[in-house]
Design a protein that fits this description.
The chain is mainly α. 69% of the residues lie in helices and 0% in strands. The chain contains 7 helices and no strands. The chain has helices at 2-8, 12-19, 23-34, 38-55, 60-67, 72-83, 87-92. α4 crosses α6. The protein is elongated, with a radius of gyration of 14 Å.
Length: 103
């Protein structure tokens, strides 16, 4: 259930409300379930959704908006921060279901 809520939520406070947990309890539950703090887990879920949209043929701007980013630049910044490459570079590598771990 928590994994489904992570996939649907866009903010930590919304996730906590939906789960019916305090901020501290939410932090503990998410770290225990996925090994990451809630904010980072949500960022990764959002990036994953946007990248899958791009891999399916959506434009970068549309994929960013559909995944909950404020704009394409926000999507690109998150991609560079988490994957160490832009969404376009990720797509050019042609490995739509893999994620780069090291720069």
């Amino acid at each position: 259930v928590l994994h489904e809520q992570l996939a649907r939520a866009t903010r930590v406070d919304v996730l906590g409300r939906h789960a019916g947990l305090s901020a501290r309890a939410l932090q503990a539950r998410v770290v225990a379930a996925v090994g990451l703090p809630p904010k980072r887990a949500l960022r990764i879920e959002r990036l994953h959704a946007a990248l899958h949209a791009v891999a399916s043929g959506a434009g970068l701007s549309f994929a960013a908006s559909a995944a909950g980013y404020s704009d394409q630049a926000h999507f690109t910044r998150d991609s560079r921060s988490l994957l160490f490459e832009s969404p376009a570079a990720w797509l050019r590598r042609g490995r739509a279901d893999s994620f780069k771990i090291e720069p």
